[in-house]
Amino acid sequence: MLGLIVTIIIVGLVAGLLARLIVPGKQDFSIGMTIVIGIIGSFVGGFLGYLFFRDDASDGFLQPSGIIGSIIGAIIVLLIWIRVGGRRSVTR
């Protein structure tokens, strides 16, 4: 169980960092927020992969296609976060 949690955190970090490198612009996120975006992106990528290919993680969780799906999902989550977060402004 601990190994699964560590793997999720590492894959989330890698996916989040790669998403931040791919998406243009400045993102002021901490490492923790980068990991969260990567983990959420992993779930989004896994869900989209299941919708398109009707395949699940029966062959194991750590696969190249899963990591690529995690990165794509993290990019989607990051773009949505930037789009929604950009609308928030404080008016006085």
UniProtKB/TrEMBL annotation:
Topological relation to the membrane, as annotated: Multi-pass membrane protein
GO CC terms: plasma membrane
Predominant cellular place of this UniProt entry's protein: membrane
Keyword vocabulary terms for this entry: Cell membrane, Membrane, Transmembrane, Transmembrane helix
Keyword Repeat belongs to the record: no
InterPro entries: Transgly_assoc
Transmembrane parts of this sequence: 6-23, 35-53, 65-84
Superkingdom as given in the UniProt entry: Bacteria
Subcellular location(s) per record: Cell membrane
Record-linked Pfam families: Transgly_assoc
Coiled-coil ranges per UniProt: none
Protein family (similarity comment): Belongs to the UPF0410 family.
Name of protein: Transglycosylase
Organism: Cellulomonas xylanilytica
